[in-house]
Amino acid sequence: MSRKNRKKMDPRATWPQPVSLEERARILQFLEERFGFSPEIFEPYEFLATSKNYWLFVRTPYLGDLEKIKVQTAGLLFLRKVSGYLKPTTAALQRFGRYATKNLLELDRLTLDRLRLEKKIPIELEIEPGYVILKCEGQIWGCALYLPGKLISYLP
Amino acid sequence: MAETFELADRYFERYQEIIPGYEKFLASLAEPLPLYFRLNTLKLKDPESVLRGLRRQGFEVEPVERVPWFFRVEPREASLGNTEEYYLGLIYPMTLSSSLPVYALEPKPGELILDLCAAPGSKTTQIAQVTEDRAVIVANDRRLDRITALVANLRRLGVACAVTTVYRGEQFPMEVSFDKVLVDAPCSGEGRYRKGYEGELLYQKEGRTNLSGIQKGLLVRAYDLLKPGGLLVYSTCTINPEENEAVVDYLLRKRQAELLSWEAPLPSHPGLTEWQGRPFHPDLKKAKRFYAHEIEAVGFFVAKLRRTV
Fold it and tell me: What is the residue range of A86's domain?
């Protein structure tokens, strides 16, 4: 890439802020109620917030020091705030989805391939509508939204 | 092609005295580089499902006994980037020797670590893996387009202990001091050269860059960013002593740095204490040279240093 075509640093790049204890409790409650994630899994981590996202970042006494440098990203993009709901990211589920005990949807290869291709498939499930974790042949693939009668893929 | 072979032979002739088994080295350049990947243990501790999946797709996969979590793959000309295992972040394709700087760094949970030239992230993600996502890693690269690849790899592997920054390495802000700094410096890449397959020889490039000048600037800044007693690892994938021992020697003359010995999982040779009549600090024998034909991977140089004051 020639020098003049190189990307410039985003001038808006700023540190996301650690969430309050109340906000953390709300996030953990959502993760436990929807997916059965034990809060202990996230004990070594902080949740950092930007306007539309929550990031997971290792808990460290160095956080204050690190805020002196200008960052592009901090930690793992974990949850997105979508129309008042929290949607876990593919990256978050591929890393932590194996600890989930609820709303884990096991698909066979054919159904997964169809969902990836068509993005939305008709399906009837005995679960409460909302986000689900997609699993296939032992591996966690990511997130989908179940609405009565249909499954919508959020796989990239 | 014959011309390429002759040029390469002539190019490496100047290293004839320092490369052990020189004829074998030259012969190895005619083969494409072996292909390896690291299993991402942040997601998976048992490799079986990955091995089964890759074998089903026609790959031959064997564990590397001397380097835990690394696997060698054939056919080596194939790409792992299109596999499901890659997409799910279960594997990180990287050359075997690229793991060596992290061995020298010995990262521990809780440490504040700077990876000064981090993109595309093989070593950053390896540090995260070794520390179970518990070190605090600042992964820096001077170019935003390279940071994009780094961020994608951190996300793909599910790393939550890293921040990414875009600074010129030699101007990284001094506001924060680190327990450990890794400088995997931009280099001429002679260690990855394979005739007609991979890499290019420095003299073939137009507008030669002053690489050793850049490397010296990076290393001195990296040292200055350490806490007293902090550890610094300098690595390149080149054979050229001007980019290796001469750079470390420069730091030893400018700062109170101390060279340390370290245990490597692959066969190595001591760093040089003299090159083309020019003496280097005698402790440079504690640095390690890894040659491509002996380790069946990219040739590497790794030096481990401590800030004394």
Answer: 1-101
- Residue-wise pLDDT for B54-109, tens only, equals 999 999 999 999 999 999 999 999 999 999 999 999 999 999 999 999 999 999 99
Would you say residue B256 has pLDDT above 50? yes
B118: contact with A, CB 8 A cutoff: no
Spatial CA neighbour of B297 closest among B121, B73, B39, B144: B73
Is B237 catalytic? The answer is yes
Which is it for strands B60-63 and B70-74: parallel, antiparallel or unpaired? antiparallel
What confidence tier does A11 reach under pLDDT thresholds 50, 70, 90?
very low
Give CA–CA dist A101/A35, Å, rounded: 6
Please, which residues 116-155 of chain A have a Cβ atom closer than 8 Å to chain B? 137-141
Determine, for residues A62 and B136 on separate chains, whether the beta-carbon distance falls below 8 Å: yes
**Interchain contact, A139 vs B161, CB within 8 Å:** no
B83 and B7 both lie in a single domain: no
Shared domain for A13 and A89, answered yes or no, is: yes
Beta carbons of B98 and B104 less than 8 angstroms apart: no
- Total number of domains in chain A: 2
Q: What is the tens place of the pLDDT at every residue in B274-286?
A: 999 999 999 999 9
Q: Does A60 touch chain B (CB under 8 A)?
A: yes
Q: Do residues A123 and A135 both lie within one domain?
A: yes
Q: Does B233 lie in the same domain as B170?
A: yes
- Alpha-carbon gap, residue A86 to A102, rounded angstroms: 16
Cβ within 8 Å, pair B162-A139 = no
Q: Are residues A34 and A71 in the same domain?
A: yes
pLDDT of residue B102: 98
In this predicted model, what pLDDT tens digit does every residue of A99-114 receive, in sequence order? 999 999 999 999 999 9
A130 and A155 housed in the same domain: yes
CA distance A146 to A144: 6
CATH classification of the domain holding B89? 3.30.70.1170
